[in-house]
Design brief:
By secondary structure, this protein is an alpha+beta fold. Helices cover about 15% and strands about 45% of the residues. It has one domain: SH3 type barrels (Roll). It is globular, with a radius of gyration of 12 Å.
């Protein structure tokens, strides 16, 4: 299996449903808010699958380590990711 990382750091909102991304960092957030993201399991290097980005409230539905949950608009906007492709 070849694992390939493509593209540069982008917002999670730039990805379509079904995409897989690696969490590279956080933007425009302070230490306390980063703690909230880390408590949800959103730590650097984690791989997430985008399930839905079309919520009218700005929420993004993701799967992380087999768990599905919604990110609020501020949480989603705080994440910097890179699209991740696996090739067999």
């Amino acid at each position: 299996m070849i694992i390939k990382i493509v593209g540069y750091q982008i917002s999670i909102r730039e990805l379509c449903a079904g995409s897989t991304a690696i969490l590279l960092g956080y933007k425009n957030v302070y230490g306390g808010y980063i703690g909230k993201l880390v408590a949800k399991g959103l730590t650097l290097g984690k791989t997430l699958t985008i399930l839905d980005t079309a919520s009218s409230e700005g929420r993004v539905k993701v799967m992380l380590e087999g768990k599905i949950f919604d990110l609020s608009k501020p949480e989603a906007d705080a994440l910097c990711v890179r699209e991740f492709n696996k090739t067999l």
